[in-house]
Amino acid sequence: MSSIETAVAKMFWVGFHGTTPSDDLLRLLDRGVGGVVLFARNIESPGQAAKLISQLKKRAGRPLPLSIDHEGGRVMRVESPFTQTPPMRVLGKIGDEALVRDVGRVFARELRAVGFDMDFAPVLDVDTNAANPVIAARSFGDDPELVARMGRALVEGLQSEGMAACAKHFPGHGDTVGDSHKELPRLSHDEARLRSIELAPFEKVCKAGVASVMTSHVVYEAWDNKYPATMSKPIIDGLLRRELGFDGLVISDDMEMKAIVNHYGVNPAVVKAAAAGVDCLLACHSADVIHSAIDALSEAAGRDTSLTEMVAGANRRHDAFNKKYTRGPLDSSDLSVIGCEEHKRISERMFSYVENETSNVSTFDPTDTSQWHDG
Q: Is 70 an annotated catalytic residue?
C-alpha cells in the first residue's frame, strides 16, 4: 500500500457483524484501519468480549482503540452482568455531579476490564424538542447549563479511570424533529440561539479536556446551509478547532447512516469530512463500503496537497490519542469488577429515584434490549 493509503486507512473506525472476527474485518485490519466499534450484535458475555477484543488487538499488531456506545438506558450494548443504569435523563433530574462522576467510573472500570478504550459518551444534546425521535431521555435535560455540568462530570469520571470520553453530537442534535439514521435533519435557528443552547455544553466540556467529540449529521443553516456538521469546514475547522480550540479527536457519526448515504453518498462525504477536519470516520456495517471509501479518500488526497495535510494532522491526533488511552491486548482478564456490589449500589440509587418519581422521568426500560439503538 502507498503511504497515503496507509494514512487514510488509519482514519477509519469500523464495525462488523458476528461475535468472532469476521473475514471481512480481518481484511480491514490488515489494510490498516485505525479502530473498531463493537455493538450488541458482537457481544455475548464479558468473557467473550474480552477474548474478542484481545484477538483484534493482537491481529492488528499496532495500537487499535476499541470503542462502544455505553450511555445508560436504551443505549447500552452490553447486558447483565454489566451494571445497568437508567438513561442520563435520570441523572439530570437528580442533579448530583458526584453521582454522575461515580457512574462514569463504573462505566470505565467495567469497559476497561474487557479491553475497551473509548466510550461514545456523554450525550451533550440539549433536549428542547419533545418531538425529537432519537435523543429524548439520552439527554441530561433541557437546560444547557445542566447538560454542561452533568456532561463534564461524566467525562471526569470516565477519564479518571483511563477511559476516553466522547462528547456528542456536535454541535447539538437535541432540537431536531428528524433522526439522522433515517433522514437529514436541518436546524434553522439563528446563530445566537445555536450558541446559547446547542453549542454551550460542548464549549464547556471541550475546555474541560474531553478526549474526543463526535459530529452530527445535521445541517445548521446559520453556519452552513449546504452541508451537515460532519462535512462542514466552517463548523469543524472553524467553530470547533479554531474558535473552541479543541485539538482532540474529531469523530464522525456513522457515515453509513441515511443522512449521508441518501443525500451525499459515502465516498464524496468522507472526502468532504476529512477536508473539514474530521479525524476518525466511523463506518459500522459494510466492508465493501469501507474499502471503497478508503480508496476514494486515498485518491482524493493523492491529488490535493491540502487534503494530504489534513490526513497527516488526523494521523498525528490518532497517535496522541493512542499514546494516552489505547491499551494493548489483555493477557488475562479480571472480570470481578463487572456488576460488583459497589457498582450495583450506585445503579440502585438511580433506579430508586425512578421508582420514587410519580412523574416517570424515563420513558425507556434499560433492561429491554429491543429498545436499544444499534447503529
A: no
